[in-house]
Predict the structure of Branched-chain-amino-acid aminotransferase.
Amino acid sequence: IRWTEGRGWHDAQLQPYAPLSIDPANATLHYAQTIFEGLKAYKQADGSVASFRPDANARRFQRSARRLAMPELPVETFVEACDLLVKQDRDWVPSEGEQSLYLRPFLFATEVGLGVRPANEYLFIVIASPAGAYFPRGVKPVSVWLSEEYVRAAPGGMGEAKTGGNYAASLVAQKEAAAQGCDQVVWLDALERRYIEEMGGMNLYFVYGSGADARIVTPELTGTLLPGITRDSLLRIAEDLGHKTAEARISTEDWRRGNEDGTLTEVFACGTAAVITPVGHVKSARGEWAVGDGEPGEVTMKLRETLLALQTGHAPDPHGWMHRLG
Ligand code: PMP
């Protein structure tokens, strides 16, 4: 779907996947005016296909557009475009367990010119790809590197938006994490490099205590981390399961002390790609420590199973999150 100043959205088309031809002076290549989303469609237990909360992705896409001075695609148009592609690719939606069809909607400037200002032409595209289970050989805790040198987003910046620049800024820290032998980066706040923000492409959760009495805490939305749709869903699922939940500031000292004195029992990350990933080990320039016994925690796995059962139609959908496509 194209957008042109003075004309709005027009020319919706369903086309076979093919390369785009880009002018060397295309504004996006130079000034990164681009936003995207990631969501999944799952084969349901009854054989139908349903996507998970596409309206929530559509609203986040609008918020990202506002931050990047781009036009806002109506929620219905975003959802309709995703639906059309899922219906077209119905035979590509895998039916095994956690497998899904991953959808990648994105919007970028198509205007040609080197002036630094909001472009007056954009193109919205959705592409899709079957996605396998994130942990085909069983869920394994990841190790994380606390990035103190690099920050992902600063107050007033683009941290809340899903825009390519945030990911470009993250790559050097991911390289650093890998050089430290860690799987993922954990970002800290820009001002004090003390408070936990989020992981590479996932939000974080901290579990205090065990069983049904466990309390579940996630870093509050400060404006510098991405408001994950999985994060939001898990706050409600945890409450449905009877857990107390909170959004709060959590410092690196709180994390370390909690693991050392045993009050912080489990830590996990969550996002569309992996749903839930346990965190098993933390490393920083100031030392390292283990989270629990290195095995996926009981509360983490219960939340994971509950959300996946809902997404694949094996459990009721009390919040009306599944968008059925027949
Ligand atoms: N943080 C970042 C930086 C991400 O890229 C993602 C993935 N979209 C998330 C968190 C998790 O968001 P969601 O649950 O909506 O996938």
